[in-house]
Input
Amino acid sequence: MTKPNLPPRFPATPELIKAQVSAFYARVRTDDVLGPVFANHVDDWPAHEEKIATFWRNAILFERSYDGNPQRVHIERTDVKPEFFAHWLDLFDEVATDTLPPETAIPWVALARRIGAGMKAGVQSARQPKDAPPVLR
Output
């Protein structure tokens, strides 16, 4: 049995996703907080951007081509701090608002914030002592 084709979560195309990812990472590379962290881990920007665009096509267009575990990757990078996620999301919001139509930017930012909250929680949980109470914010 084949899986049904689902409509996109919101108005987006593969080309629009690629352009947004490219614009976002252009900003990240010059950002005082995130730039150095990404510089420590990304040697091939086109390949990184393609992998992230594939992630977003999966999340938005329901393509099933992404192969990765972003939660694990962020946990393994010890220089990725939980407090960086708010900045990452604010920067993503700025770029989306500047480059996308509202009918795409607003739901995409909302989706990114939901995903980012989960990523931050995962990083916090992985980094706290085993007997520590959970962080609830």
